[in-house]
Amino acid sequence: MQYIINAPSRIDTTIQLPSSKSISNRALVIHALSGGTQLPDNLSDCDDTEVIIRALRDMPPTIDIKAAGTAMRFMTAFLAVTESGEHVLTGTQRMRHRPIGILVDALRQLGADIQYKGREGFPPLRIRGQRLDGGYLDVAGNVSSQYISALLIAGAAMRNGMELHLTGDVISRPYIDLTLCTMRDFGAKVEWTGPDTIEVAPGGYKPTPYFIESDWSAASYWYEALCLSGEDSVVRLSGLTDGSRQGDSVARYIFSLFGVKTIFDVKEKGVPTTVTLKKYAMNLPRLEFSFINQPDLAQTYVVACAMLDIPFHFKGLSTLRIKETDRIEALKREMLKLGYVVRSTVDNDLIWNGEKCHADTHPVIDTYEDHRMALAFAPACWRFPGLRINNPGVVSKSYPKYWEHLRQAGYVIEEVL
């Protein structure tokens, strides 16, 4: 399937954003470890959260988490530390090519019974669950934060807790902090005891009523759209909180450099409210930024900067190579279709110095089974009327109502089979 997208002349809309996928997935696994009976409120309705809900509810012998990377990492740890029998954990073909050896090795050091059913270091996995004693672990800090979060969440369920030492540079630290905060919300005792050490005390979790706030990652696409729209456009986003623990909430500060003002109806921290976005004239000559703590925002800013003719140099993108697709190569390839020559370095930086080429006459964006390719490229229709997006259904992985919300905002979207 393919969508042909045309933008309205201006935007004036209120959008009920999806709930945070990151918080939902953490809260679900922690809730299961707590033994609670009432699921967290306002859970995300995205595919990645649905697979965790089904897995924890049904616990079938073979658990297929499809393309959900968070589910693969979190469920590996969950199954390893709970006396839930034997399970095979598998996913899509792409998932079977995404590494998980670092997490498996760490859990094995603590006594977990995990075997590879195929290629060493990659799913699918056969896991025989058991209560683990816990203890001390050294784990590289420059790997996916989901490995670290999975270990921390499981650590509270271990008899002796866990002391986790992160070696080297620590990336995506806000996601680790989000995990710690969610664990504490459910009664766990966990703290940074040094710049690279986290201690998880034994004692487990307590069943706790829990409400999930809206998703700042999803909000970033509306910031992007507003930047590319008319001067008098306005967007209102429901369910966000000031002082959010989500790492991608930094989008509000970065987009302020683009002239987007963020106005909270309620400024009390932690209280979900409506946020109004308004656009003001701003001349940003160049943007240099490290996405080491917010890698999922990279696609948004690559597209936004290019559409606004803002040269950029983005760093901290090494984890993009092992996402739903190789996002660095996918971005370079699709930006060429729009006439922008984006280059990468040996350190996986992305650079655009204003170099352009001939754009395709009728550009068609491939999404590579990656939801964020569709989400980030759709607003480019403000510069490329009639922009085509292949396999638009991939957005269900994190933002199932995205196209519905674009139509609500006045976009004209034609479906082509």
How would you describe this protein?
- It is a single chain.
- This protein is of the alpha/beta class and 417 residues long.
- Helices cover 30% and strands 22% of the residues.
- It has twelve helices and 20 strands.
- The chain has helices spanning 21-34, 47-58, 69-81, 101-109, 145-155, 173-185, 216-228, 251-256, 298-307, 327-337, 371-377, 402-408, and strands spanning 2-6, 12-16, 62-64, 86-90, 113-116, 125-128, 135-140, 162-167, 190-194, 197-200, 234-240, 260-264, 273-279, 287-290, 312-315, 343-344, 350-352, 364-365, 387-390, 412-416.
- Strands 18-19-1-20 form a four-stranded mixed β-sheet. A four-stranded mixed β-sheet has the order 2-11-13-12. Strands 3-4-6-5 form a four-stranded mixed β-sheet, covered by helices on one side.
- Helix 9 (298-307) links the parallel strand 14 and strand 15.
- Helix 9 (298-307) runs parallel beside helix 11.
- The longest helix is centred in the N-terminal third of the chain and has 14 residues, at 21-34.
- The mean pLDDT is 96.
User: What percent of residues are in strands?
Assistant: 15-25%
In percent, how helical is the residue content?
Answer: 25-40%
> Which stretches are poorly predicted, pLDDT < 50 over at least 5 residues?
none
Our measurement of the CA-to-CA distance between the termini, rounded to an integer number of angstroms, reads 5 Å
**How many β strands by DSSP?**
20
Shape: globular
Strand arrangement across the biggest beta sheet: 18-19-1-20
Quote the average pLDDT. Answer: 96
- Assembly level: single chain
Number of helices: 12
> Whole-number radius of gyration?
21 Å
